[in-house]
Amino acid sequence: MTQQSVDSGTAVGSGVDAGPWWQDSVGYEIYVRSFADSDGDGIGDLAGIADKLGYLSDLGIDFIWVTPFYPSPMADWGYDVADFCGVDPAFGSLADLDRLLDQAHERSMRVVIDVVPNHTSHQHAWFRSAQADPNGPYRDYYIWRDPAPDGGPPNNWVGYFGGSAWTLDEASGQYYLHLFLPEQPDLNWRNPAVHEEFDGIIRFWLDRGVDGFRIDVAGGLVKDVDLRSNPEIGVWDPAGTRWEQWESFDHLYDVFQPESLDIFRRWRSIVDEYGAWLMGETYTLEPEGLARLVPGDGLHSGFWFEPMHIDWDVDQIRKALVPPADLLGDRLLWAASSHDMPRSPTHFGGGDQGRSRTLALNVLFSCLPGVPVFYQGEELGLVDGIVPPSAKLDPVGSEGDVAAGRDGCRTPMPWRPGGQNGFTEGTPWLSSSQRDEDETAEAQAVEAGSWYHQYRSLLAARRGIGPLTGEDVHWEDDGVGPVVRYRRGPVSVAANVSDEPVTVPVSGSVGLVFSMAGVVHVDGCVELPAHGAAIWT
Ligand code: GLC
Predict the structure, then answer these.
(1) pLDDT tens digits for 258-278?
(2) Whose CA is closest to 406, among 471, 337, 319?
(3) Which domain holds residue 383?
(4) How far is ligand 1, taken at its centre, from the CA of residue 101, in Å?
(5) Are 250 and 366 members of one domain?
(6) CA of 37 to the centre of ligand 1 (A)
(7) How many independent structural domains does the chain possess?
(8) What is this structure's pTM?
């Protein structure tokens, strides 16, 4: 157990007044199945993560967020949890988790785990009881309704993965709700017993020593009390992509109900006892919507997803940075990539162009208020892996809409050239084309100027700058021109969003604290190459 290292909510090695430990920190998302396999079964595991803590420390990471490792039938690769207080044997054991916590804490690295409170697996004991006994105490843990008069679903809600959000339970003749797969029935957060259960679950992990939670589907937990149909604002086509289907409705009643905030206020009173952190998967593309989900007294921080949706366009980048930074400040989590979306270098055009654009975006994130979170392999400039159509495993997109699938961003981490790229001694759970030598961590570690070294220098520079919490952001580009530029405390940060070099005038002599390849500082100006970025004081 690692209770000793979770002594307060303050920064590691800092005094009590330094503020919460996550301020001015940098995170790293680990998609556990694909990070590092320690036992040759082809599936990444907790011991594999522990083996790589040195790598993460050298990179400059302050905390890791580990995706679900709980017992699961893996219909949604672990986001369908069958036991919230265990470890799936594919990922190891509780003892492995304890070791990971100990070893991370010895390195002053914190560990945030995923908690999935919107739904369970259909194999969870609660759902099995609910199905088996409609009059039993677990029935009301889930959301059941009689069919509509025509025998169809009780309302018009669609799931995030497309299709109706309701599945008929033949035995009882009632439908149950699921915002994701039918194998992921939604919990009924209007039932006080569900609150009690989760109080126990988060205390279980806090007592083991975890430092925080990333809360899955944080905006969606409580549903409209009357389960009213959403207004249809387009024409719902069940054959459309999942995004088209979702956007055919104005989601007034299924997600973003204000009562969800009360859950996080309650959790906050628990995690504050431990100095632990609540970070939400707060999926909205409106800064005001995000501000409502992260009002300050519930979730400490919320992910901002707009950067994963924009084109490489200066106006879109400003829109993805300026309003949220000004509105939410240090409650933001900045991420360019995740296990749910195409990797940012792929999204921004692929190749070295996409890699440079992603690094430039991360340079912009690095000194803004809030916390940047990298996705495993981002530090190597990884583009999406290539998964042959016959090997696709993501349930999303499996029925025809292959482009919608998330397999490409989930291929195994390339540690070494050759073989299975050092990910496993066995056969990887998800097959993909071998990565080129220069994409691997081992090759990049010994190549000056590699993406790995550029990211490592960025994180070292950020650490060297010291705390910026409390400093305002001053946007210095007046919202025009191809260079996004701000000043915060002692530092200036600028990124050239155009495909041509740009000269940025600076007053007096400046010291570059971080510069991407090709940046030149001459008297009175900093020259930024196409999609180049720099930080100076
Ligand atoms: C979140 C996860 C995603 C998962 C979904 C359902 O969006 O990030 O991977 O499929 O929730 O749990």
Answers:
(1) 999 999 999 999 999 999 999
(2) 337
(3) 27-121+190-462
(4) 24
(5) yes
(6) 22
(7) 2
(8) 0.96
